[in-house]
Amino acid sequence: MWSKVEQYIQRNKLLKESGLYLVALSGGADSVALLLLLKEAGYNVHAAHCNFHLRGEESDRDERFCVELCRELGVELHRAHFDTHEYAKLHQVSIEMAARELRYRWFDQLCDDIGAEGVCVAHHSDDLVETVLLNMVRGTGLRGLTGIQPRNGRVLRPLLCVSRAEIEAYLAERGQTYVTDSTNLEADVLRNKMRLQVLPLLRKLNPAVSENICRMAENAKEAQMVLDALVNMYRDRRVLNLRDLDKYGSSEYIVFEWLKNFGFNGSQVHQLLLADTGRVISSTLGYDVLSDRGHLLVEPSLKPLKALRIPEEGTYILNEENRFKVYKSAVYVSKEPFTATLDAEKVCFPLTVRRVERGDWMQPYGMKGKKLLSDLMTDLKMNLFEKRRQLVVVDAQDRIVWLVGLRTDHRAAVTDATREVVTISCQR
Which pLDDT value is given to residue 187? Predict the structure, then answer.
């Protein structure tokens, strides 16, 4: 069995010969076999045992077994005791989740304390099969079909290539004892039901079902790696051109992988791909995504903006992105988009800087009549995100004198009769 495990370790680059590793030791067959295999292979290992105090004397029995086993093997053992029920109650999580959080938090801290490269846990191929089936029952995409991965951060799984039967045969051949968690024999948890009821039935249909599922998971993992490489080409973008994705045959997977990092789910992605231009959907992480003429745009959800009052000349800060400088000078006309020059006699202070509001209108320079800003921005082919961010400068007579960066108002324009200009500059 070691030959099989060694090849798996090398293929997945799990362990370094010079590294120090923790072995999560429960006392059960899987973790005992893992400790023996790594110890006898010459790896520098410490053991780590958690007593969750969930099974009374049986929990203490497991701890005593681990102490004695490590003494016999000459392996340093680290132990931790947890009040799991109290933690679960305090954090309002299940007992299973509480044990998991406590265990991995302690493992992570212990790795830091002793300088360990990672923690080896004894998940085997049967666990992988159960995980794949559970993911299928709950509903999964391709990633769920890959099951358990050999590496997840500091967590390493060298035994994923061997089955529970192989582990038990290995221990029997050595005459090595282990303890059994009685709760694993009860069919009251979904995973245990899968192990004790569903898998035996599937094996009656096909004795090789576990091997076939493991092979499928490996194939899915290879396919996932190819897709991940493709998705990484788009991951850091804030705009996605859906037409560019047509060459892949389907855009939904890439769009989902792109958007899930911003907190969007599969149902929302499906809605977006069917949505008309202008549809906005919000995520739980504080992002909005906009469907706009064959493109998807994502940006942080818009936060309320307090209007900025400008009573006189000077420099004023609206927010982190925008500051305004206002001053009077001799007559000139600026051609810079974010600098407006207006007839000082036609602009009444105080000025106000705010976002565009429903019903806003102005008389754009060169036009005789007024125009709604919503129509003006549509004519300029601005998308909804740009429209909702757009700033205006309003004077004391409630006239919009500048659509910032885009248009000045004809009624405040510089003419041959202008004697002084007021310059408003938006610095970004």
Answer: 54
Q: Are 262 and 283 in contact (CB under 8 A)?
A: yes
Whether the CB-CB separation of 48 and 24 falls below 8 Å is answered with: yes
Determine the Cα–Cα distance for residues 220 and 320; give it in Å rounded to an integer: 45
Pairing of strands 155-156, 118-120: parallel
Using CA atoms, how far residue 289 sits from 255, 297, 308, 356, in Å, is: 11, 5, 28, 20
3-state secondary structure of 156: strand
Residue 255 and residue 231: Cα distance in Å, rounded?
Answer: 9
Contact yes or no for 103/53 (Cβ under 8 A): no
| CB 371, CB 364: distance < 8 Å | yes
CB of 354 closer than 8 Å to CB of 308 = yes
Strands (E), 193-350: 239-241, 280-282, 287-292, 295-300, 308-310, 314-317, 323-329, 339-343
d(CA 347, CA 345): 6
**Structure tokens belonging to residue 6:** 């060694």
Cα–Cα dist 299/395, whole Å: 31
Integer-rounded Cα Rg, in Å, for the chain is 33
pLDDT digit string, tens, across residues 106-143 = 999 999 999 999 999 999 999 999 999 999 999 988 99
**345 within 8 A of 420, measured Cβ to Cβ:** yes
Indicate the residue type of 138: R
Q: What are the residues whose beta carbons fall under 8 Å from the beta carbon of 267, sequence distance 6 or more?
A: none
**What is the amino acid identity at position 335?**
K
Q: Global pTM?
A: 0.73
Residue ranges of alpha helices (H) inside 55-183 are 57-73, 84-91, 95-114, 125-138, 142-145, 164-174
